[in-house]
Write a structure and sequence with these properties.
The chain is mainly beta. The chain has a single domain, classed as C2 domain (Immunoglobulin-like, Sandwich). It is built from one helix and eight strands, in the order H-E-E-E-E-E-E-E-E. A hairpin with a 2-residue loop joins strand 1 and strand 2.
Length: 123
């Protein structure tokens, strides 16, 4: 018996709804401001959040050498809010650095290897 077109479409839609199918979290925009020697990062993420089983759950500020300078943990999925922006203030960055990288994390894939490099204002 040959499967029907509707059976095939049902299988495809079920496969696409599996939480692990969503792509890695991606950073689309970063705004950096300096205030009294520390920095605020407003980071915009895009991710195909699928609920609690698979969602963008954080991002980190990294030095050029890969040291973690700041970390923002996201406590819940943003299924109907895409893309979304969250902030982290009070990040201390060594004076000799003029750039940092931001990397996104999701609950299934971990850290995205593609980082978003930003220049620090005033440096």
């Amino acid at each position: 018996m040959k499967p029907s077109k509707s059976s095939f479409l049902l299988l495809v839609s079920l496969f696409l709804s599996i939480p692990g199918y969503a792509n890695q979290a991606k950073i689309t925009e970063v705004d950096v401001t300096e205030n009294n020697g520390s920095f605020r990062f407003d980071v915009t993420l895009r991710h195909e959040d699928a609920g609690w089983d698979h969602y963008a759950d954080g991002w980190e500020v990294l030095s050029p050498a890969g040291a973690v300078l700041g970390k923002r943990v996201l406590a819940h999925p943003h299924v109907s809010e895409q893309p979304f922006t969250r902030s982290l203030s009070g990040v201390k960055i060594p004076q000799e650095l003029s750039t940092v990288s931001i990397r996104a994390h999701d609950s299934v894939h971990g850290y995205n290897k593609k980082v978003f490099e930003v220049s620090l204002p005033g440096r």
